[in-house]
Amino acid sequence: MATQRILDFIATRRPNGPCLVVDLDVVEDNFQAFRKALPDSSIYYAVKANPAPEILRLLASLGSSFDCASVAEIEMAMDAGATADRVSFGNTIKKERDVAAAHALGVSLFAVDCVEEVEKVARAAPGARVFCRVLTDGAGAEWPLSRKFGCVPAMAVDVLVHAQRLGLAATGVSFHVGSQQCDTEAWDAALADAAKVFADLAEQGITLTLVNMGGGFPTRYLKDVPTAQAYGRSIFAALRRHFGNRLPETIIEPGRGMVGDAGVIKAEVVLVSRKSAADENRWVYLDIGKFGGLAETMDEAIRYPITTPRDGDRMEPCVLAGPTCDSADVLYEKKPYPLPISLTIGDEVLIENTGAYTTTYSAVAFNGFEPLRSYVI
């Protein structure tokens, strides 16, 4: 939601064009909530959610580690004050030269999900620690992840055996239950799979020590979501259920849950029209759309809260669209969005809880529109 600090910033600075404003106080509150909810788990912030230097510096100062998807993100985290031992190269799809570059920077923890990736890491980062990503179904997530990442648990065993054979340190397993995961029990089945991989490898003389439980922690959009404490209780219970008293080292990778509710996008109504005299729905066009940072409205998966200066007036369902010359740039049409009937050209609106996956999804210059500007306060 828009904090008073964000509202004051917009009112006094009057930034031109669409922009994201992030309140660092909210980010810090979220970090402390995760630390309290899962005190025995290391927090590895998912840099891809929002890599603003101010956010990374704050989190580094608070003791966070970082989940990075590229060498550029690793360099961002280290520039912000993180040491290499607080960085995980969590992308399972890496160029060999990027593995080598990360290794040269001192990074020693890499994600894999197949023997081919293990062989790359063994050549470019000899002796490194690796964890194997296991497939999960993502049920209950509003932004589910595909089969692009991970392998079935039986294959994970083979992948880690191969890693050990090639001189790497087979360290553990990882999974991701899907982004914006609203089911606190979603980690249970994945932890059961992880425990099975641990047991199967123990039989082959390989002792795993790490479970990377991924992200998935949600931000409140139009519906309430469970608290960090609720997730912590459920996850800890699942860990005890499947690992007993021999709990492994654990990692969580919050991204959206860390920064989503810390940011608000200021946007402007460019046009309000209808397609025919009989059209039931107005079309409301904003100066930001899918290509300006709202990519997660694809398939209307994420429905952001929107506030307007005319809230309180009579509402009517609208089709909401962006400004670009691309017919895919429609945010909400299958389920029209209720907005005040009095909303008009030039009105400013606030798209709330947009701190995650907006600046990073913003196109460089599609149709000549500049990338989404960001202010961190």
Tell me the number of strands: 18
> Main β-sheet: number of strands, strand sense, barrel status?
8 strands, mixed
Looking at the structure, the CATH topology of the largest domain is TIM Barrel
The first-to-last residue Cα distance is 15 Å
Structural class: alpha/beta
What's the alpha carbon Rg, rounded to whole Å? 22 Å
Number of helices: 10
Give structural notes.
InterPro entries: Ala_racemase/Decarboxylase_C, De-COase2_CS, De-COase2_N, De-COase2_pyr-phos_BS, Orn/DAP/Arg_de-COase, Orn_de-COase, PLP-binding_barrel. It catalyses: L-ornithine + H(+) = putrescine + CO2. The modification N6-(pyridoxal phosphate)lysine is found at residue 48. One of its GO terms (cellular component) is cytoplasm. The chain has ten helices and 18 strands. By secondary structure, the chain is of the alpha/beta class. The protein has two domains: 90-254, Alanine racemase (TIM Barrel); 261-376, Lyase, Ornithine Decarboxylase, Chain A, domain 1. The strands form three sheets. Strands 1, 12, 13, 14, 15, 16, 17 and 18 form an eight-stranded mixed sheet that branches. Helix 2 packs parallel to helix 3 and helix 5 (96-104) packs across helix 6. The protein is elongated, with a radius of gyration of 22 Å. The relative contact order is 0.16.
Please provide a brief summary of the model.
The chain is α/β, with parallel strands linked by helices and 377 residues long. It is built from 10 helices and 18 strands.
How do the helices and strands line up, and which of them pair or pack?
Elements (H helix, E strand, L loop, with lengths): L3 H10 L5 E4 L1 H14 L3 E6 L6 H10 L2 E4 L2 H9 L7 E3 L6 H9 L4 E4 L2 H10 L4 E5 L7 E3 L9 H13 L3 E6 L4 E3 L5 H17 L6 E3 L15 H16 L5 E4 L3 H4 L3 E11 L8 E5 L19 E2 L7 E7 L8 E11 L7 E5 L20 E4 L1
Parallel strand pairs: 1-18, 2-3, 2-11, 3-4, 5-6, 6-8, 8-10, 10-11, 13-15
Antiparallel strand pairs: 1-12, 7-9, 12-13, 12-17, 14-17, 15-16
Helix pairs in contact: 2-3, 2-9, 5-6, 6-7, 7-8, 8-9
